[in-house]
What we know:
241 residues; 9 strands; elongated
Amino acid sequence: MANEVTVPLLPCxxxxxxxxxxxxxxxSTTYRQRKPYPCAGVQREDLNLQxxxxxxxxxxxxxxxxIVLTPDIAELHRAFAAGxxxxxxxxxxxxxxxxxxxxxRRNADGLGGFSVIDPGGNWIRVFxxxxxxxxxxxxxxxxxxxxxxxxxxxxxxxxxxxxxxxxLDSALARPRDDDDPVTHVEVLVYRAELAMTLDDRxxxxxxxxxxxxxxxxxxxxxxxxxxxxxxxxxxTALLIG
Length: 241
């Protein structure tokens, strides 16, 4: 048989919070009931999710997760980010709910991905749909690039922002003349994002200030443009609180 559809059923503490959050991301409510137990379904194009409410459920202890494959992670992330800005005034990068940025995942054969952590503590892991017969994924080149790749696995895949921050702090404490300045910017901005996740706003400010002191030539400035957009989002989040 072909064309089967699997819809994940995920736990939450409040159906109302779930529907408000996914509504901000552009989902519509496809189903809702209060009895015999509260549950609901949401849909955005071909992406379907369902949720059930558990009284006293702690989202911080949730193991709920699912994988979403899409041909364009950047476009989906942009749509979610726009919805967050409209609903909350900023892209949510700390607390619950929040969303990570699209980055290559070393533990997923180098596929790009990002995660949405919803009000139920569920990790919706979005990955780029792989192209047919992909070639070998090159290993990250350079000390900072390797540290960044390891930190992304720990924080964006496993949710261990603290250990990821320690890896980047260790790398940033040993600057070298041959460090790629664009990668240096990426590491500092990601460290600022981790600081926001860890509710350490002072470190986030320091990292963003260090970014401004890195000299880039025109080509490097162009390469770093997407990272500067992330830095601008973080600066806005720091201002809004």
